Amino acid sequence: MSTHPSSSTLEIPLYQLAHGRAGDKGNTSNISVIAWDTECFALLVEQLTEARVAQWFSYRHPTKVTRHVLPKLEAMNFVLEGVLDGGVNDALNLDTHGKGLSFWMLDIPVTVPTALAARLEVKEYS
């Protein structure tokens, strides 16, 4: 777990603020991130940028990452192009559909106020 210079924030994994789901079409993965509540959503909109997600998935070499913010659902959808090793019919990896990528996304560290962490009863990131 990382604490920040201000003792009023913590770094915790995204899954403590949201849940997710992944889908695919060809060589493109689409990952939804759905916040647990409005306060969580506001932090996610601020911190889960296209650049941050592209960097997090850099090991998969995305050619493009697009973020769609869905405020009425308190959710975001990320479209990651070029991350599925050619798609279901071409990929040799075990997760050809990329369903496991939502779990990888949900491990991104997010900085939150300690009051929010206490309200959500989350564990510190280690």
Write a short abstract of this structure.
This protein is an alpha+beta fold and 126 residues long. The chain is built from four helices and six strands; from the N terminus they run βββααββαβα. It has one domain (9-113): 2-Layer Sandwich (Alpha-Beta Plaits), CATH 3.30.70.
Please outline the major beta sheet: 4 strands, antiparallel
Helix-strand pattern: EEEHHEEHEH
The portion of residues assigned to helices is 10-25%
CATH architecture: 2-Layer Sandwich
Give the tally of β-strands: 6
Q: So what's the overall shape?
A: elongated
- The oligomeric state is single chain
Measured between the Cα atoms of the first and last residue, the distance is 4 Å
Report Rg: 15 Å
Instruction: State the CATH class.
Output: Alpha Beta
Average pLDDT figure: 84
Low-confidence stretches: 1-5
At the third CATH level, what is the topology name? Alpha-Beta Plaits
Number of helices: 4
How many independent structural domains?
1
The chain-level structural class is alpha+beta
Give the spatial strand order of the biggest sheet: 2-3-5-4
**Percent of residues in beta strands:** 25-35%
